[in-house]
Recover the amino acids of this structure.
């Protein structure tokens, strides 16, 4: 009885933390609507949202800030949730869309979109499809090269293979830039840097929202399976889980989330690494709480980065994606130092 009460108290604490994080997210979202080169008061924002704004506030809110902020929201959710799934599947704190090379595979296919399609037709609905194709292809190659038949999955080998393949994809993407014209290069550079400035088409927001909502719902339906796999592959098999089947389904969901986020956001790979770690310290390892917490935290980070690069003079003209990478690098180095076993395992 006492154990049940303790379990319920822990879950209640996790729910309260997620509610607090959600309140912080809403506050930062409103702050993002208010602040910028053209400042707008909270009262005027409310009037504008309810159809009583003037021409200037309507333009700023509905054409610039609102679509950009909603897009960043889904990017944060996608990258944060994807990182949770990958880290739990591989039992590796360093696993993420960026370190596994999945995001680089998606980036390569998005680069092909800029090179071959964008100049002829603007088809945003193709972006997540191409990015997903690139991510799945990358994940497949990494899995084939990083595993051996009839042997347990080695997360260390998968991470190292992902790093190597990521470097290869980046080299190919850089080569493709030399065949682009100035307009294509400019668009690609802004995307690759995670530049969220300017007007974001509502069509992009709609397409990304559909993909992220669908994959998030699928992930939440499989949280119990992910929790069991997180205990260990042997334990999961003993409890009746088809590990290989579940692994492929969950990695497909994670790649889908990361790829669609990459397609419309660009360089926000580190969100999939640091979001889950911060969330895990707050709500623990239970996936049904960890996924929403990680998504919310990743979204808060990206919105705050966007606010800083728009309003703080020293950070102005720095793309939000680069800013996120800069502030994430120290945390990544901390994880590398903490996980020395990864280097030892690779050397052995």
């Amino acid at each position: 009885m006492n154990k049940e009460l303790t379990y319920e108290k822990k879950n209640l604490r996790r729910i309260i933390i997620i509610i607090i994080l959600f309140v912080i997210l809403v506050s930062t979202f409103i702050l993002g609507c208010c602040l910028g080169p053209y400042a707008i008061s909270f009262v005027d924002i409310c009037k504008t949202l309810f159809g009583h704004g003037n021409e200037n506030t309507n333009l700023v809110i509905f054409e610039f800030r609102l679509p950009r902020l909603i897009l960043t929201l889904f990017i944060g959710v996608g990258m944060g949730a994807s990182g949770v799934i990958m880290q739990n599947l591989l039992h590796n704190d360093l696993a993420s869309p960026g370190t596994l090379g999945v995001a680089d595979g998606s980036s390569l296919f998005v680069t092909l979109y800029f090179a071959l399609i964008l100049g002829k037709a603007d088809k945003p609905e193709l972006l997540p499809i191409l990015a997903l194709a690139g991510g799945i292809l990358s994940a497949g190659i990494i899995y084939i090269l990083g595993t051996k038949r009839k042997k347990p999955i080695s997360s260390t080998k998968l991470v190292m293979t992902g790093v190597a393949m990521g470097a290869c994809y980046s080299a190919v993407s850089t080569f493709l830039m030399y065949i682009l014209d100035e307009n294509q290069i400019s668009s690609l550079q802004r995307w690759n840097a995670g530049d969220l400035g300017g007007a974001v088409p509502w069509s992009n927001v709609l397409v990304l929202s559909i993909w992220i909502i669908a994959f998030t719902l699928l992930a939440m339906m499989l949280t119990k399976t992910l929790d069991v796999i997180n205990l260990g592959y042997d334990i999961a098999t003993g409890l009746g889980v088809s590990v290989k089947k579940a692994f492929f389904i969950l990695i497909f969901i994670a790649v889908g989330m990361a790829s669609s986020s990459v397609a419309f956001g660009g360089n926000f790979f580190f969100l999939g690494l640091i979001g889950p770690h911060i969330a895990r310290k707050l709500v623990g390892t239970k996936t049904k709480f960890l996924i929403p917490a990680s998504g919310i935290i990743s979204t808060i980070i990206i919105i705050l980065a966007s606010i800083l690069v728009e309003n703080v003079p020293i950070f102005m003209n720095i793309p939000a994606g680069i800013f996120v990478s800069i502030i994430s690098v120290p945390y990544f180095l901390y994880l590398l130092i903490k996980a020395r076993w990864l280097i030892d395992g690779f050397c052995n």
